[in-house]
Amino acid sequence: MITSILTYIFTAITIAPIVYILITKNVIRAVFSLAFSFLGLSGLYVLLNAEFMAVVQLLIYAGGIIVLMVFGLMLTKTTLNKGFITQHRSLFFGSLVSFLLFISLAALAAQSRFKVGFIEQTGDPVAQIGQLFLTDFIIAFEVVAFLLLVALVGASYLAKKSGE
Amino acid sequence: MTDSLLTLIIFFPLLVTVVVLFLPNGKDLLIKEIALGATGVQLVLSVILFFTYDASLQPEKWSNAFQFVERAKWISLYLGDYGWLQIDYFVGIDGISLLMICLSTFLLFVGVIASWNLSKNVKGYFILYLILSTSVVGCFAALDFFLFYVFFEFMLLPMFFLIGIWGGPRRGYASIKFFIYTLVGSLFILAVMIGLYLSVEDNSLADQTDEVVHSFSLVNMMDGGYIADGILTPGNATEFLGMNIRWIAFIMLMVGFAIKLPAVPVHTWLPDAHVEAPTAISVLLAGLLLKIGGYGFFRIAYGIFPDAAVSLTYPIAIFGMISIVYGGLTAMAQNDLKRMIAYSSVSHMGFILLGLASFNVQGAGGALFQMVSHGFISGALFILAGVIYDRTGDRGIANFSGLAKTMPVFTGFVVVFFFASLGLPGLSGFVGEFLVFLGALGSDYLPKWIGIVSISGIVISAAYYLWALQRMFFGQFWTREKVWEKTMYDLTARELLLLIPLAILVVLLGIAPNIILGPVNNSIEFFVNQCFEQSQLYLAQ
Amino acid sequence: MTLLKTIWPLIFIIPLFSGIIGGLNHRQSLKLSSFGIAFGLFLTLILVWVLDEPLILEWKWLESVKFGFSIDRLNALLVLLVYLITLLVQVFSITYMEHDPDQGRYTAKLGFFAFSMIGLLMSNQLVTLFLFWELVGMSSYLLIGFWYQEAGRSKAARQAFMINRVADAFLLLGVIQVFNNGYATSFTETLASGIQWDGFTGICFIIGAFGKSAQFPFYGWLTKAMAGPTPVSALIHAATMVTAGVYLLVRISPALMEWNLQVIAIGGAVTAFMAAVAALTQFDIKKVLAYSTISQLGYMILGIGVGAYQASVFHLWTHAFFKAGLFLAAGSVIHYMHELDTTKDPQDMRNMGGLQKILPVTFYAFLICGLALSGLPFLSGFLSKEGILTGSWLWGQSTGNYLVPILAFCTAGLTAFYIGRQILLVFFGETSFAKKMLEPLVTIQAPLIFLAASSLWFWNAINPIDPLGWFWNGYLFADLAATSDQHSILGVLIGSIVLTLSGLGVAYWLFRPEAEMARGFKKSNEPVQLAGKISFHGWYIEKFYDQIVWLFSKVVFGAGWFDKKIIDRFVDGVGVTGVVIAKVIGWFDQNVVDGLVNFMASISQLIGRFVTSFQSPKIQIQIGWLLLTLLVLLLWFQYLT
Amino acid sequence: MMEFSLQQVIEEIALLRFEAALILGSLILLVFGMLSNKEVTYKVIFSATLLVSLFMVDVRDIGASATGAVSIDALSGILKILFAFISLWIVFFHSRMRRYEHYFLLLAIVIGSSLMLSANHLLLFYLAIELTSLSSYLITGFSFSRKGYEAAIKYLLFGGVSSAIMIYGISILYGLSGSLSISEMVITTQMGPLYHVGMICLVGGLFFKVGLVPYHFWVPSTYQEAPTDGVAILSIVPKIAGFALLHRLLVNFELLSDPMYRQIIAALGIATVLMGTFGALRQDNIKRMIAYGAIAHSGLVLPTLLISGEQGGLAFIWYVTIYAIMTMAIFMIASMYEDFGIKDVKDMKGIGIQFPIMGTLTLLILIAQIGLPPTAGFTAKFYLFSAIWNEYQTSGATIMLIYLIVGLLSVVLALFYYLKIPFHSFLGTAESPYFGDFSIISRSVVTIFTIMVLWIFISPEFLNKIAFNINFIGW
Amino acid sequence: MMEMLNPTYFVFLSLFIFCAGIAIVIIKRSAIFVLIGIELMLNAANLNLVYFSQFDPGMNGLMTSVFVVVLAAAEVSIALAILLNIFKHYKITDPDELTSLKN
What we know:
- The complex is a heteropentamer.
- In chain A, about 75% of the residues lie in helices and about 0% in strands.
- By secondary structure, chain A is mainly alpha-helical.
- The longest helix of chain A is centred in the last third of the chain and has 26 residues, at about 140-165.
């Protein structure tokens, strides 16, 4: 029961900022409301037995990506009087497409049967995750490491060029 | 030596091309000499071919009708449900291709001399030229449809550039037009080729005997090696637009080759291409490339679809007749000497259609002879037109008058070749026309009036040639631009060197046509008989 | 036989050689080649002498077509004639062409002509005949257009050749018919087989022969042929080439059907009459002779048609002499007219008159030959014409068709009249040229004298009124003499003499020097009344040709236009290719390079623009399209599964 | 919980030794890059890495790792060889002072692509695609021009959305099946229609990689603006890998047995061919035109995936090999013209006359691109069309016939846009002569490619053997 | 741990987030907004993965979502690096004003 209530609360925390982002034209506000949304999402993750993921969400998204975006905004701010206000375009087209997608996907989802069957969790999930990183997901782990290296090298090189 | 003689003839210029490719840019004269040598070797080899050809061979089937046969597996591919696909390097000649090859090598040799004055990008020119010579000869020798098609396509691009780069002021237009027309024609041929290869079976070279082997061998196609239910197998009742599929295929081939030939009404690329092409290329265009259309009729359209050919003699003959008369009439309306000659080619190529349509030995022999003779005559005519163009940069018939005064020798040659082209007996042009008329009027398949109307072609051709002669060469000496009067000198030694052999050949063939028709007579007879027998066989199915 | 086989090729080839040799040597070419021709003449005499059995030579030309010659008495004699006239003409030309820088070319062409003509006469196979037939036509073309720098002459040459070519096409058709119908393909075999050809084939041959022999409706070319040098006219367009048609018909007449022969007879008669009428009013000295030639050829053709081909051959023979004589004489007149006064047209009879005193030898030669033409007794022309008239009369009697004999007789009278007129107008009356000139060199005189002399009867027959008494008759037609009996009939004899005399008389009455018409002649113009106009314009045959040519040219330019505007565009307009070319035509002239881009753009205008319209440069629109497509796919799935 | 074993890890790494070698090489490159300033050093290490890794491939080494993350078949072995072989030629591009990062990223693309070939787990699949994508975005930006950055950001945004859609699809599939392993995922019809959504989204990610409609939007601008050697890699390696992976998906999920999928995929393929062909007609920029041509090529490779049996596999191997060779050649040529400052077709006037050999090589390569004899491009198209025709004959699906017709049409139209280049370069007249000359190395390399293209046409046995030696079971 | 929530609840929730991301990507003019949209789409996927991972003993979904987050970060960093350059050259960051690459 509590879980349900918490779920609804966190859902609200997630959805409300998203709706605000949809409406607002202010970029900086949108970025910060995105942080709130992520907060709600990590709450949901906790409810879904994914504490590790909730932490990651908070650390990387709220702590990393959002900050990165804010920095980006600062560095590319055009003019003061224009501020962080942006415009909407293809409003009708965009809403139509996304709305229709939502409707049709929802209709399909309602007919679908997902593979849900409760299983008993054994042991510490976080420890399990750590183990998985180095066993089943060792390849992915190494690949993502290399990927980050690539991103690092490339992005820094590009950024260096922009500084020149 | 004779084992690989054909291959040598075909690929020798290509070998030389590689040599030329690595020569430095400046050595124009050397390149010309090399090209001359290469085509000269080709010519000598083809003369050897001519004399070692066994004229007495009397084949019973197409499979033993060819000499100097070389065959090697090229591409062999397993296509699952379809069995094996087999492409061979398969060359060989019978009388028909023998003559065509000899004609080609001769004209290619002449063409090199004709382009001796060239100074713009000599290396590129001769590389293209040599590639062209390989593909032309290869086309005439190929007995594998795929190989034929490859050579056929291969011709397109060198020609495109030879016209497009070294041509006259409207070369871009002409080359594109040439390219597009020929390409469209070749697409028709491609479609039929694929249909044919799906419908035939040929196990002669295959290791796998338990599977169906589809091969592109023309010989097998001509001998009727069809599988039971192929799309183009005789007796297949598939209809399209109310016509049997074989008929459709034949018509597609006819259209494809008629564009190359060219026959009215798909001839309009020819005048433009001729007018814009440089002299030597005009010579080749008229002398060889058109003949590939005619050769295609012989070897492919008639050889493989005799049943359709027999049934469609009437329209083919009518198109031939229209080409003869209409081409002549349009030639008369031209103001450009080269254009006139080009249209006269259209007219003369009509004889090939008419001769083939008559479906007898005389007609076929006439068509073949016409191809050879037109090769020489039109070659010479384009060289002559090129002479004036060299001197003045103009070819307008109305821009000159009385050239006989300043250029008597030139005029003499013009008279000889004009008369040869208008079919004066004693010169080679007459023989082909005579045989074609003999065939057309004696044909069991054609009504007389087609032949009779076509005979008016000889009057029309006389009309435009003599009119041009009168306007350009007779009368008081006059040129539109005063400057030209000074540049009007008579033939140079090089031009004489070009024209005298051609003139000798034209006279020789006119007096004694049997020196070339004799050796190939068996082939022509066999061609006609085989077409006839097979058509009866196929039609019965 | 061995002798024959040795000299035959020589006879055949000598003219060609003498032509080539003559052609190489510029100044002396005519003289040199004359020796060659003389040698050939000598050989031909031997040939005629020794020839007994026909000699047939054949070899394979094509697999199914033979090439062959035969030499029998008829063509041996005609070859002799060709040699003889050629020699005379060459000798005559030595002076006539003295100042022409192109003498060498002239000689070469003459030699080439003689070669072709001899080949024609010797041909046995029809294909061979056609070959030389065309070569003769070509050499005639070259000789008519000898003075190519004068546009009118080269044009006349072309027209003459074209008219011939039309007829030749029919001849070719006839030859092909013979092949395809399985008839014998040589004269000797045709004669031996006795098979009759079908009428169509016969008509084709007849048209061919009519063309070469300048019969209606082809006779117009002969007047145009007068543009050539006058000796050439004498040789080709009077004595030899034009008789080729006659010769051909003589050869094939056994194979022709009855109605074919009627066509020949009527055609010949009509031509004879028409040409005689046309000759009445001409001003040009050569034109009179040209029409006269046409008329006489009509006689010969007529003779064949009525079955009197012996007489036709005889007339061919005699006509060759006196007409050549007339032409050479006219040539002499023209030559001296030209030397006397270069400003006036040397061929116009209105500028002449009284030349009798200035050119006495020419005058007498012309007189004798002219009277021979008119058919006065004791001259050769009378004899041969008598034979034809008799034949036509007998034919008229047997068929009941008197049109032919009536026309023939009328022509006889008209002939006498126009030649009388010509003689009177040219040689009698006052001369405007004061000085008297000696007639020059032997080269001019000798041929004239020879030809005039040979126009007397006794060279041909002892009996001056019996055409079958021709010396060569027995030689040529020994086997036929018994079957046909065409000795002259008294009525015909008297009738023709009366007509001739009255024709001459009327001519004298009208054109005697003191007569009104003779005096007014010098200032006369083209006739204005209808009959005169018809005559003067040669029955408007040239107008007729012009109409045809006009029509033809319309067709030609129509075709040219059609090709450029319709076919090119139509073909181009079919399919994708077409659009390409059509666009190319539009753009290329301005900008060759952009054309390619442009026409591609136009092909793909609809599709291409549609396609790339998705390719908005705006990234979000692109994403939108992507998502929209996915949406469509989803919906598709939703509804279809 | 899985049994942990070091042995497993080593085995897994052993299966990926090609990628491992490349990663190692790229790290060495990074190290040396910081030490050395000479481009030659980078090039040497780059090529050495590829060469060494070439020896790491063993076609006979087939199998899946114990964790199920990686699975290798003969096809992936062959394609890895092809990748390494083709990428080697990058060093012969004439370049203006490239930094080591450039080569490092090129290697990263190759690594990502070969990982794609080996991926059996959807996570690894996603990671491999993202690795390729991220390196591609970066390489696009490495042209350091205004338009280059513009192309890069567009590429990135488009790619971001595509990958987000793909991972969303993966998540749906995960929800439905409870597994992320391609070979283990069990699909049943009871799952309901959402399964199709997941599948479309997943396949869409690969469509993005190979540039098929509707994921083709990024191709023209990226190809136009990215550094040419980068595009050369980009247009060959990830694309071929994408097709191979797409094939694996289609086979494992048995999508091909569903006529609906066949139809949709074929329809999208036809749309791609048309889009590429008609789009190319309007282009003047050489690289953009080639880009549209590449889109059309993608559309032509697609049907081979729909054709099961040897014919399809053969056509695929042929087409991608020839495509790789001629595309590498055409971009090398494009970069050589770029050195002359030529970016537009219209700038090429008369260059073929001044440099006839170069012009001829260009022409031959373009003929191969069009698919005319005497080039291997013709053979490839020939096999392709034969296979399509056969498929039409056996299945009777009209869409295959349409595919065939559209394919032939694209050949005809390709003639027009590709031949614009030789048309201008030979038939046009230069306003002023071009200064300088093409570097001899680039010329020789292009010559080698041209000879390859001609030689394979004349003697196709070699490729046929390779194609036949692959076990086509499952194709 | 607690009672199972209806799976469609989370699926709908993630679907909403996903579609909202799409709407943002298409509608907003700023590049940052587009990035936000992409992040939302990724988070929608993550939510699904995490939710369904509960029923998977291998925890594949959870692991995947961790990697997705990492990748998202990498992507944003690259995007910003490029954006900085774009800003330097164009003085704008709105992607729909970048229209120099036309057909």
